[in-house]
Each structure stands twice: as C-alpha cells, then as structure tokens.
Sequence to fold (444 residues):
Amino acid sequence: MRRKAPKTESELIQNAFTLTGKSLQQIALELEQRVPAEQKKAKGWVGELIEFYLGATASSLPEPDFQNLGIELKTIPINERGNPRESTYVCMVPLDSNIDSSWQTSVLRLKLKRVLWVPVEASTKIELGQRRIGRPFLWSPTTEQETVLRNDWQELMDLVKMGEISKLNSGLGTHLQVRPKAANASVLTATTTESGEYSQTLPRGFYLRPRFTSSLLASHAN
Amino acid sequence: MRRKAPKTESELIQNAFTLTGKSLQQIALELEQRVPAEQKKAKGWVGELIEFYLGATASSLPEPDFQNLGIELKTIPINERGNPRESTYVCMVPLDSNIDSSWQTSVLRLKLKRVLWVPVEASTKIELGQRRIGRPFLWSPTTEQETVLRNDWQELMDLVKMGEISKLNSGLGTHLQVRPKAANASVLTATTTESGEYSQTLPRGFYLRPRFTSSLLASHAN
DNA sequence: ATGGATCCACCTATGGATCCCT
DNA sequence: AGGGATCCATAGGTGGATCCAT
Fold:
C-alpha cells in the first residue's frame, strides 16, 4: 500500500495535495496502519505515516527524505489558533572534532534547501485519529531567510568550533535554536573542549523556532 | 540465573573452573537457554553462553569483558587433534582518520593484556549440545610474545596510517592477522587513501593465528 | 510559551565468532 | 588449511518528533 517514490517534484506535490482534509485515521486505514493509543508513546508516528503515504526513501539518513528530488518532508503540528504548536527539528548539531564544514556544505542547509511542509492539526482537544491534514506547500528559503539562517548557523557553529559547548544555549539564534536531542538527559556524545581535549556532552539538535515556521505558514496561506 | 560479575580475578577463575568437563547442553540448561539447531545461524552462541555463565559485563564495547578486572574472555574452538579450529578475533582494525594511537594505548593491547581462555570442543562430529568445556586458563603475553604482537601491530597499522589499506593482506603478521569483519563483502566503512582523501573500504578485524593460540594451549596443558 | 527532557523506529557498527571455497 | 565471506545479538546514534515543568 506504500506509494512508490515520486519521480518529479510536481508528482510529489500532487500526491501531497490528496492528503488535504483527510484525517489521520483515514490515512492510517488506507495504509493498513493502526492509530496509536497515546501520542506520548509514538511521538514520531504522524511524520512516519506521511512519509509512508508519500513514498519517502531516506529514512534515518542525514539527507533529504526524497533524495532524488532533494526535498525534505516536515509535518508541522498546528494548534487551535492555527499556529505551530512546537518547534521543528532539522538535524543534529555536529559536536565531534574535524568540523571544517561550511554553511554551503552543511547538513542544515541541505535539509532546508527545499521542504515540503505538511500542516497537521495538533490540538490536544482533538483525538489523534480525528486530526486533519492541512494544505501542504513547498518552500525554499528566500534570500533574506537564508541570510538569517546562515548567520544563526555560523554563530552557533562558531561556539562549537571554539569548544565552547557550554555556551550553546537555546536562547541563541533568530530562526534557529539549539536544544537537547537524545533519549534522555544522561546520554553523552563526543566533543572537544576549549583547550582541544576530548570530552563528552549531551547531544543537541538544530530546531526551527515556532515564530519562524509560523511566518512560513502565513506566506503560503490561501 | 546469570551469575553476578566476579569481584576478583581468583573468583573469576574459580567460577571458570566449574565449567570444566560440562557439556554445552548442561550449561544451557542451568542458564535456561536453548541450544541452537545450527551453529551456522548462531556463530557467537558459545561465547555468549560462557559470558553469561561467568557474569561478563562489557558486551559490545571495545573493552575487556570483565571491565573492573581488566580481563577479556575468549572461547577457543578445539578440533579432534586438540588444536584450535579457527583463528581468534580480537578487535576491529581502526581504519578511520585521526589514528594517532600507539601500541601502549591500543585497543588490541588492552584486550590482550590479560585473557581468560576457555577451550571448547568444536569437532563437527560432535553435536553442538554434547561438546564439552576444557580447563580454562588465564594468560598474559610474555615479554617475547608482546614484542612479536607489537611488531605485527606496528607493521599493520603503519600501512593503515599511510593510507595503504589495499596492501593489508592476511599473509602479514606473525601472531596477528588482518581479515574481513563484516556482515558481508559489500559492507563499507570510512578510510583515508594514500593521498589523504576520503574513501571507503571493507571493515577488517585483528585475529590471532591458530598457530599462536595453539602455543598458548600447549603452555598451559596439565 | 519556552526550552529541557523524553519516546519509538530503524539502521549501523561492533562484539560474539564460525562457515566454506579453493 | 588459509583466508575471504558470513551470521546473530545488542548497543548506540539519528530521524521522526512531542511532552511537560516552570
């Protein structure tokens, strides 16, 4: 029942449009999946369901979901007021040594180069299966947006490259934010200190702030 | 039913002695495990069974099995003639960049610093469950043995450090040997070429040659 | 509403080794 | 019998994200 990977961008967006207005339960039925009882125990379920529906391929790789098209898929949870309920995870912050990467070659830029956003109702007042999909839209950063993203990324990665991981806090960044990304607070990953020594710290991820994704929604409103 | 991790070396070896003469089926029964139908589909079963029996802790880490004691556990398959039927895997060959490790700090040396050898009958003429355990013994490399191991390691790692992975062949090394260590021949891992560029190659492991482990058995015969 | 903490799926890498062709 | 190829278990890391205390 899984769709084949789309061959073109327009095929992908056409497929995505067929989601508009459907409930998660409807989609789950079509794909012969069951709706989880608690979302707490299935936090990624909605995203994986939509991936499956659209035939995404790069699951669990630091690459866009639709590799051949260079398009990343992101669901975006929408609250009662029509705004994003959460920030949007993009990718891990590289904390290990040998960081000589530039913005141009960064995973963050690669992932955000072109994104298919799929809004999904996420009010806790609506049962999971009853939540509906909004109208999906394709987005690429405008020149202004990319400039801000690049500056944020540079500012944050400069701290990492200087070994000043402890100064990474979630208040930094205009559109971006760095927050923990791990199974729990005791997970550790390799990093390098200010003096160049080996150390360990909590893994972090790059997230897009809700204020930013909210502006994307507004620009693509009907 | 799993034994607690032993607190001292003598506790460990005393526990190990209780294995002597037992069949694999007997041990499996005690531990409420079942004997696999085919060893082909359970190549690591004997080793894991003995680990479990003795309370080993560092499963799946590049560290000795009994971390607190610094002791590595190795089962050694014995053929009809009383000789090792196979080479003995020690650890992965580090093929990635940033190889500045010395023999003194190498994983290979750490693992071979002190080993509890557990001989196990391995003639294909004996059914898996009927195979018996021989008398376990503790070993540390003699000065001469360590010299040869160190020279082997240095010779092999020099090739890696020079990016001459293709020259790594299983004929090199007196006691050591480098051979593939992967799920299959198409598995690739990161490495660096002679010219310093990124590349990929088949993962390799360090193995002890049967001739060498045979000499260890001989030195510890009753 | 912010941001630190958490939760499942899935894949990969490594530890445990033996298989099996030539 | 030497050495290239293979097989299972399990831990760890990342992708999918949301939870929830303050």
